[in-house]
Amino acid sequence: MPTTILRCPFSSCRSRIIKTDDENTNIKTVTGNGGPRLLHFSDGEVSLNSSTKNLKFYQVNDMWTFDNIGVSRPTSMDDEFSITIDNGSVPVHIERYLTCADCDKGPLGIAGSVNREALEDPSGSKLVYYLYTDSVFQEVPPTSIDT
């Protein structure tokens, strides 16, 4: 995974959310289906995504991996989506939404539980985080070869 800095999609903010690279083993890319509509960033414009099928997410297993992320209170909706891992589908119960911690705009992704232990933990410390790849501004820093 090339080094990319993921930022808030809103030009008035652009807060750094997370850095992806080969050294950060807490991040992987997965495909998701179902769930709520999320922000979609394209050509400088932000809107809601039109589909909830075959969406790409950055899966982050530990919230402390993020540089800056907002997490909503637990949702009251009884919604699930599924992620595809090794050609199998795994259900994820949606617990919270991800937002920009600086401007509070979103949703940029979701946090959910994949097992009973996570569902029964009120602190949210056992949640898995799914940042929608199209909801963030992706900055590719110049490499030392470019400078």
UniProtKB/TrEMBL annotation:
Alphabetically ordered keywords of this record: Guanine-nucleotide releasing factor, Protein transport, Transport
Q: Which GO terms describe its biological process?
A: post-Golgi vesicle-mediated transport; protein transport; small GTPase-mediated signal transduction
Cited InterPro entries: Mss4 (IPR007515), Mss4-like_sf (IPR011057), Mss4/transl-control_tumour (IPR011323)
Molecular function (GO) terms for this protein are: guanyl-nucleotide exchange factor activity; zinc ion binding
Q: Is Protein transport there in the keyword field?
A: yes
Q: Which GO terms describe its cellular component?
A: cytosol; membrane
Q: Its encoding gene is what? A: DSS4
Protein name, please?
BA75_04284T0
